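Q: For a teaching handout, I want to show students what a protein-ligand complex looks like in token form. Below are the inputs, and the small molecule is DP6. Please produce the holo structure.
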Amino acid sequence: MIGTDFVPSAYSNSVAKGKITWKSPSNIALVKYWGKKENQIPANPSVSFTLDTCATTTTVTYRKLEEEGKDYSFDLFFEGEPKESFRPKILTFFKRVEHYLPFLKSYHFTIDTSNSFPHSSGIASSASGMSALALCLMSIEKELQPEMDPGHFNRKASFLARLGSGSACRSIEGDLMQWGLHKDTQGSSNEYAIKYPFPVHDVFKNYQDTILLVDKGQKQVSSTVGHDLMHGHPFAEQRFLQAHANLTKLQDVFAQGDLNGFIEIVESEALTLHAMMMTSLPYFILMKPHTLEIINKIWAFRERTNTHVCFTLDAGANVHVLYPESEQEIVYQFIKNELVAYCENGQYICDTIGYGAKKM
Ligand code: DP6
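A: Here is the structure, written as tokens, with DP6 included.
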């Protein structure tokens, strides 16, 4: 059975109550996860930069119940206010992870969560949110099993986060994370993400990501629906092969500091993700006119200045502008002068590559 390594042996400790806080970042995929099988198994491997500024902070207060409940017992708060609309998502998550966290029905939990990025900015909070919650639950398990080693802690946190939201498994550590079985990556797994195990040139250190908020509206297609569209998609098999090949190509690109090679793979991945949505049934166009304006401006600026700015996209209209730290000044001027005008209410977020979640 999948995940047997993560079923704990009997707990050696007993804990009546406690409180734990984790701050966990979002991440931006360079090779995209798009398409999944049962139990949150990805259809193809992916790799991402962990972010720093965009993060969720979650505090879980827990109290042992007199006797184990029939159901899960928890209260939810978002930015200090009760948030019942999160309940179904958390319930689904608890159901998926209970086999691996047998203490879940023995406690009452108060889950208090807040995001560093503006509410409904169109930025996915599932990666940071689910990883923060998974880490809080792991910290509770560590109280119950103090001998747990840190490697196991991180792997299982990633494993649990994945069951909440696939991309969340790449948010536990940083700065580059790989998830999904890949023949050219020893140690890779469909069940959890690993730190990128190959050499990475210094030019990729502190890489910058300025997120342009083009459309802050509700997502037109939820990721669940989006992933589903890859079942029976006419180009799915080719796409999955392409993701494998791109991961292999990236190994040289990262090692050599080949920025042009990087740009080619990253932009192609972003456009392929959107091409998959445009060619599925039903079909969707998730880019907005301003998304395309920004892409064209980036291409013109890159040509004109010989810089290495490029873009990537999630399953939405917002644009992630990626560039090396050494080009920060000139690219940031360009963003302010030429791109911010395309953002909804002029809003954007300056982020940089980060090193994973932190216990507070
Ligand atoms: C386009 O991780 O949000 O951002 O597993 O259904 O929660 P679920 O999907 P999710 O999908 C993210 C898709 C993506 C690409 C990526 O992050 O790799």
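A: Two things your students might notice: The chain is about 35% helix and 25% strand. Residues 3-198 form a domain with the Ribosomal Protein S5; domain 2 fold (CATH 3.30.230.10).
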